[in-house]
Amino acid sequence: MISALAEFDSHTAAGIVARAALAVEDEANPAALATLPGEDRVRDRLFAEVRASLELAPNDWSPMAMSRIGDALDQELDALSPVENEQRVLDELGKRGELPADLYRIVIDEGMRNIYAKHWLAEVDRIHKTIKKADREESLGLENPVEPSLVKLFARHYAGGNPYHDYTHLVVTQPGDNRQLYVAAAWRLYTFSVPHVEGASLLDMLKRFCAVYGVKFKVDGIEHEAFTLTLNIPGEEMSFKVEVGAQTMTDSKGRRVPKPLPALSLSFFTERGADRATGAARSAYMVTCINSDKYKAALVEHGW
Amino acid sequence: MPGPILYSTNPWFAHDIAVRYLNGVHFAWVSDHFDATALARGTAGGATAPSSSPCEIYTRLAQDVVGEDTHSFLINGYKKTFKRLARAWEAAGAISSTDSAEIVALLRSHSWHMWRPVLYVIPRSAIHPARIHAVARAARAAYGPENQILDLQPHEFDVIEFKR
Fold it and tell me: What is the ipTM of this complex?
């Protein structure tokens, strides 16, 4: 411990050292200003002690000397305020959906193979690229001004030689434990098939995609048109009944018969949390239901 | 005569810290010109150091992120600065010890995504002149003018990111 700091508790000492290190780097930084009474004198003693320990001349203000002083102060800062278990801190951030995209382990739902078939490996590569080099990211979920974690959407636009085949790749994920980012769906929104996506929020993009390729479904008896997002449900009990289909058609003999269902891609996301003000339990869910056959036909139309 | 727009290049992490931990209050070095090299020599703006030019910083930072350059002078400098700032803010009570630990843990992580550059585009009309602080020559990188805004609010500027 530097003797100039001996009279201070570690919290106060860390502040003094941090401000001194900022002053070494950039005197113009307002955060470098001394704030405690007599801190300027303490800072002078601090610098003198560090210079002596580094065998630097008192009048050596060279960039190399200042860099070494800054590094020595950083070491003292680490000793005064260590971070206990950094990996657990990152795990917690991951669970909340607050990690940078490239720190997540991407886990892709194998059920998507049914849609992409022989193009599966290429699509996996594309999903990784869209997440790690997204044009835009958006988080949805319980009321959280920082980062909701029900769903994280990533979007990247891919343009080639023919504008008709240009598309926005929209990846729908949910952050989970152990810094995993679970990819539930990845859709290509072709510009000429899903209108007005430019400038739209990623949530609006998803809704417009569902409007083109989705099928109706019911959650607990309430019908939805391919998409629903319900936030801030009181309590944390989540037991839903999702029903798809139950449509009828007229057969060749004029009889009303159940209409065969197309291949479907159903995604269901849930989140439990607490009201920030009252601490009361709350939950949220999002459901999408896509006609996979119709979507695959669009992929074929665009060159697959 | 000053132009209508101020520009500031920052790593995305700086913007994220301000939004997440500092109630949206941003600190920014700002310039009247996005690209000082496009100005005539002999003008004040043309004398801005490359290390203070928003265009140059954006280009260099983007290259370092794409190349995952572990020796990046910019990124290593940012890491040191933000660690010191996190501790200074914690000592001042501006952020909690948990927030400070999160910032430091992220600084020590292997993310490159968090260092990608973003450009703040600030309409000068949104900022009272008294809030634009001219930086003294001794603290500037070269003769050209450099300014700071200490308390930029989210509604006062736009954040843009060029496609990678």
Answer: 0.87
